[in-house]
Amino acid sequence: MRVLAAFQYTVGVLATLVCCPLAILFAGLGLDRATYAQVRIWAWAVSAATGVRSRATGLDNVPPTGSYVVVSSHNSHLDAPAIVRTLPHPVYFVIKKELARIPLWGHAAVKIGFIAVDRSDSEQAHSEMARAVDTIRSGRRVLVFAEGPRSPDGHLQAFKKGGFHLAVDAQVPILPIAVNGSYRLLPKGAPAARPGRIEVAVGRPISTAGLTKDDVPALAER
């Protein structure tokens, strides 16, 4: 297991060292497609190193055009690469501020357009979420892990409301996603991932047209 963990960590570091500088360069040049291609390459490299395969169901539910907010379950570090590899459109993650401080990776994530939110500072978090709304209105798709941190036991946790407020404020649909199988392959605290298959199940879009912040609790429950 130690050898496997070392191998997976090494591949992850090498992928970061290659893809992140290119993503920063392309982002600075305004080349969005080339920038996000580095995200997909990084996700592919991580998946290849872990032996994890991804299969998507319900892709016909993905709106072919326009913005939306992806609201996903979150059981494992494998979730993000699986979603990046399977969704047809680029998605820009809402991440916690601590991830933006990771050397190179964090800087690249912010340059790419990922939105770092400081959960310890409510005023700053509100400002960053307002910027996320502007990002959605500009035509981008944003992803939020509704449970916040990874599930500690593989079971769905209570939803936080930030992602639902984003969708309501921007008046765009919510695209619900369940990532199945990732906890079994890489539970929280495990030193290395086991090879296997993950299913990314895409549900039908949920409209937020005409909804207000008062409707957020019912929207999250739905």
Please, could you describe this protein's structure?
The chain is of the alpha/beta class. 45% of the residues lie in helices and 17% in strands. The protein contains nine helices and seven strands. It has helices spanning 2-28, 32-50, 79-86, 97-100, 105-112, 122-137, 162-170, 182-185, 216-221; strands at residues 52-57, 69-72, 91-96, 115-117, 141-145, 174-180, 196-202. Strands 1-7-6-2-5-3-4 form a seven-stranded mixed sheet, sandwiched between helices. Helix 2 (32-50) packs across helix 3. The protein is globular. The N and C termini lie far apart (41 Å). The model has no long low-confidence stretch (mean pLDDT 92).
Runs in which pLDDT lies below 50 for 5 or more consecutive residues are none
Give the overall pLDDT as a whole number: 92
Per DSSP, the total helix count is 9
Strand order of the largest sheet: 1-7-6-2-5-3-4
Topology overview:
Elements lengths: L1 H27 L3 H19 L1 E6 L11 E4 L6 H8 L4 E6 H4 L4 H8 L2 E3 L4 H16 L3 E5 L16 H9 L3 E7 L1 H4 L10 E7 L13 H6 L1
Parallel strand pairs: 1-7, 2-5, 2-6, 3-4, 3-5
Antiparallel strand pairs: 6-7
